[in-house]
Description:
single chain; alpha+beta; HIT family, subunit A; HIT-like_sf; HIT domain-containing protein; 6-stranded antiparallel β-sheet
Amino acid sequence: xxxxxxxIYARVQAGGDLPAPSITEWDVFPWVVRDGAIAPKPLAPPxxxxxxxxxxxVDCSLCGADLPxxxxxDERWRVKHLKQSGLPLVLVLEPIEHYDLPDLDEHQAAEFGxxxxxxxxxxxxxxxxxxxxxxxxxDGAEHLHMWFLARPKDLLSLRGSFSPDWxxxxxxxxxxxxxxxxxxxxxKLATHGGEALI
Length: 198
Ligand SMILES: [Zn+2]
């Protein structure tokens, strides 16, 4: 069972001031401090698109079998976790073969939609989780990867589109709690098919 808002709050308070996460050093981070106040960075001039990681499946780190962190898989899709981070759960849904979102045919799109709803429903059914945000960005790697971010119930600072930032800001919670929630999601996904791998 995910930590309660009170447990997260107490743990974070005990750690003192939160350090700035590494995203503040990314070149796409849009804010700077100017004259002592937060301000937008100047817009860079247009430049040609850069290749994304794994374009056309060449040297794609998301292709292949035996990838780390997979908690559930069927013949065509897998759900995995990354390194534990600040939110209670962050999951990624990917096709096993190399497709970007616009590449999916109607049948694959239908499967993608069903799995997206299923994951969101399962994560939102966990105790102490208020919402499961789902998003596909796709500017980094070409291989389709859909993000699911669990937002803790009653922790209203974490609402909305800044929740990925909070995922980087907050320290990870207890690893055994995290793994138990991962296992519960995998178990529930497997009741519809596929195999739980955690
Ligand atoms: Zn790939």
